[in-house]
Give the backbone structure.
Amino acid sequence: MGLKSQITTGQERTIIGVIGDDRILHNQPLTALPGVESVLPILAPWKLVSREFKRDGTIIDVSGVKIGGNKLVIMAGPCAVERLEITVGIAHEVKASGASILRGGAYKPRTSPYSFQG
């Protein structure tokens, strides 16, 4: 049907999250399939991180910095990356201020390739 599946295996059941255009599923009797206990539409825009879909917390490791655990992670940086020297200087200031991750805007849909609109 052109949809993607995300399989989560637990101790008591396996959840198959189907990702894609939900209009395709309206005419499909999925509950009639063997092994299907129930069908629950998740309408949240962020399905893969929704507590409806995945109850356990997610921890993402970014070069040794763990995001999503019990420690607060500060990410800071410039709105737009313009020159290497400026970005490196900001990186030093960000680290000295206690942040763990440098972020910088590299592409913004509002920025024209012909003129900076920041």
In short: The beta strands are 4-9, 14-19, 60-62, 65-67, 75-76, 101-102. Residues 84-96 form the longest helix (13 residues). Helices lie at 84-96.
